[in-house]
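3.2 Worked example (two chains)
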Amino acid sequence: MKVFSSEYTFDYSWEEVSTANWRKYCPWNDKSTHVLAVDTLSREVDLATGILRTERLITCSQSCPAWVLSLFGGSNTSHVYETSYVSPSDKRVTMCSTNLTWSNILSVRETVVYQPDTDASSPGHERTKFMQDAKITALCGGWQKMRTKIEEATVERFQENARRGREGFEAVLEMSRRVFGEEKERQRTEMKMA
C-alpha cells in the first residue's frame, strides 16, 4: 500500500469553499477537462444533525499507462463513487471516494476535508484548510514488483492531479467570488431604486 497526502490553505472562507465545491467540475475550471460527467445519485439532510449527505458518480477520461492497458485491458474512461458530508455546524466538508473501475486490480480510497484554518485566519480574512489523503493498494496477486509499479504510477498520477486540481479550484473560487459579488451589488442597486 502507498499513501498520498496533501495539505493546502485556500485564501477563501469556509462558506465560499464549501459552496464552490459543488462547482469544482464546471466550465470555470479549465484544469478538469478530464471530468466527463458528475451525476448526483442521492442527496439528503439528516434532520437531527443538519448534515447534508450526497452520493455522486464521477466519470473521467484519463490516459492510462500503455503497459497497464496491455496487461489488464479496459479503456481510458473510469468511474469514481463519492460520498460527501457537509456539516454547517462544525464547518466541515468531508468527501470520501473510491474507484469503481479496475477495483479488482487497484483500490484507491481518498478522503478530502475542508475546514476553517483558524491558525491562518484573521477577522475579516478567513482561510480554509484542505487536507487530502489517499490509500492506494494494488490487489493483483502474485508479483510484488508489479504491485509496487502500479501503486507508484498511481501515486505519481495523484500528485499531478492534486496540483492541477488546486489550480483549477482556485479559478472556480475566484470566479465564484466575483460572480456572487456582482450579484450582491446588483441586488443592492435594485433595492435602492425600489
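3.2.1 Second chain
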Amino acid sequence: MTTALLIVDMQNVFTSMTTICLPNILRLSTHFKTHSLPRIFTQHGHTQAELTPPFKNQLVRKWGPSGSIAKGSKDWELMPDISPLATENENPIIHKNTYDAFINTNLAALLEEKGTERVVVCGVMTDCCCDTTARSAFNRGFETWLVKDACGTASKKQHETGLNGFGYAFGEVLETEEVVKRLS
C-alpha cells in the first residue's frame, strides 16, 4: 500500500508548539525518505488581499488580520529544521489558507498521482489543521493515521481532544515508533 507522509504547517509561528513533536517529525521524514515514500508539506498563509477588509476568508474573519499568518512573513516561513526537507528532491509544498489542506489545493490530485492509498499526518496544530486535514483525507477514501507524538498544539487538552475525536471515528492514532514499525 503506497503511503505518503503529510507534514502540516511546520512554520515559525508555531515553533513553541513543536518541542516534543519536531524530533518525531524529523524521524518520520527520514524514514519516508529512506524508503522512497512520498513526503508532502503544507504551508498556511494569507495574501494581503485576504487580510484586508472586507474579509472573505473565514479564518481571517475568526482570528482577525493580526491573528492570521501573512504570506511572505517570517512567521509564515517553514522552520529551519523543516525547510531543507521540503526543498530537497523537490518535495511538494501545498500552500493553503484554511485548516483543510485539501480545500482549494491540488493535494488530492497529487496523492492520487502518486498512487497513495494511506496518508500519515503529523505537524501542527493537532486539533486544527492536522485533525481537519486527516478527517478530510479519510473522507476522500484514504486510510489515515494521525501521529500523536509527531503533532503539537497550544495545550495538552487541545491535543488530546483532537486525537480522541479523530481516533473515535476516522482513523488510527499512532506513535512514531509504531508507524516506523508498520512501514518497515
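3.3 Remarks
The CA atoms of residues 100 and 133 lie 5 Å apart.
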